[in-house]
Amino acid sequence: MQDLFFWAFFIALMIAIGEFLYILSLRNNIRNIARDFSEKLSMDTNTTVSVSIADPEIRRLALLINRELKALRKERLKLQQGDQELKNAVTNIAHDIRTPLAAISGYLELMETVPTDENGARYLAVIRERTEALKRLTEELFQYSIITYASDDINPTQLSLKSELEIALTGAYGMLSQRGIVPEIHMPEADVKRVLDHTALQRVFSNILVNTAKYSDGDLTVVLTESGELLFRNRASGLSQVEADRLFDRFYTVENAKGSTGLGLSIAKQLTEKMGGSIQAEWQNGNLSIRLLWEEK
Fold it and tell me: Distance between CA atoms of 151 and 9, rounded to whole angstroms?
């Protein structure tokens, strides 16, 4: 009787151990499936989720996940192809517009040398203004299409943020002066150096300064700190916090921003992030602040 009880207990124990090990195997496989699924979502790969257990339900789960992954890859490929087609279309359109614009500008220059009456001169001035605006918009759209899809266009070198900021402010002097803006500039005595791309950085600064010229009530404060943070602040009574939050959105334009594609700050944001920095806009008490930060590495 004792032997029978022993063997019954032993068999029950073995069954319990087997069930426990089987449950552990199930948990490990489920954990592996979850990890593989997460990795496959973040990677552009054709590999599938695999399992090492014969359980039919686990295999069925893996089969369903792989089926959804396959469908997701197809949709991702369609989006990538669509993005590339859109990029090509935008680039081609911008390029095609450039040629007739150059011809129009050339003829305008010739017409401006011909004597005309007051009305004719006024009409020519309007045509010149609209032509220049169209040229700026076309160039902005062309540059945006290049920046958006280029992955290896950043060539970082060690730069002085002070020197780069001075170059940008000097280049924007004429534009700011036309709008009566005299920048108030604050920089630390010590130089602030970061590993950035000169061309991209100047594009970021230029687009921010152009944005300032559009929205400023007549002032601009520029602050560079020793930590590498940059602040561009100006009074902007025509804006609101909602509009400030959307300044970096593609093709978003504030209603009074005439002659703009809404791409300038979107380009600045993309270039800033490509160089490992951050950029944000804040509107408070009638003041618009744009902050950039490149942390020292």
Answer: 67
Closest CA to 209 of 240, 237, 177: 177
Q: Torsion-angle region of residue 133: left (phi > 0), alpha (psi -120 to 50) or beta?
A: alpha
Separation CA 27–CA 21 (nearest Å): 10
Number of other CB atoms surrounding residue 155 within 10 Å = 10
Query: Is pTM, for the whole model, over 0.85?
Result: no
Token pair listed for 225: 């700190």
Beta bridge partners of 195: 158
Work out the angle between the directed axes of helices 56-112 and 2-42 (0-180°, nearest 10). 10
Q: What's the per-residue H, E or C state across 167-198? A: HHHHHCHHHHHHCCCCCEEECCCCCCEEEECH
178-204: average pLDDT: 91
Q: Six-digit token pair at 188? A: 């630390």
Cα distance between residue 135 and residue 268, in whole Å: 19
Range with the lowest mean pLDDT among 36-40, 114-118, 236-240, 265-269?
A: 36-40
Rounded to whole angstroms, how far apart are CA atoms 201 and 36? 39
Average pLDDT of the chain?
79
38 pLDDT band (50/70/90 cuts)?
Answer: confident
Task: Give residue-wise pLDDT tens across range 90-99.
Answer: 667 766 777 7
Residue 204, token pair as written in the block: 């970021």
